[in-house]
Amino acid sequence: MTEITKADILRKVYAAHAQERRSDEICRALDLPLATYIKADMMTTRVMKHPNWRNQRSPHALMIDCIWIVAMKQGKKRSQSQMVKATKEVFGVGTQPRPNIWWKENWAQELIEEIL
Fold this sequence. Notes:
mainly alpha
């Protein structure tokens, strides 16, 4: 069995982040409804285009944050370990949701409430 190196992990992370948003695949892997995908995709786009967004998260990680937020607000909360497992299945590298980095800012709360 070959050992996975840090370089291998970095290549996987880069490949996951370089891909187009694939929130639909993550939502299917988490057994979330189409409405979750649509709102999460809309939220990801609106957050990235907001003038107060400071790129605290990569586009890929932001997408994971938005899926987690929408699912939680819709009463379909998934655990962080479920999110990591689903992203590892889809992208080959697990991504943990960390919306606490940005979502409690006033502009973000307003945007989230508007979308939901």
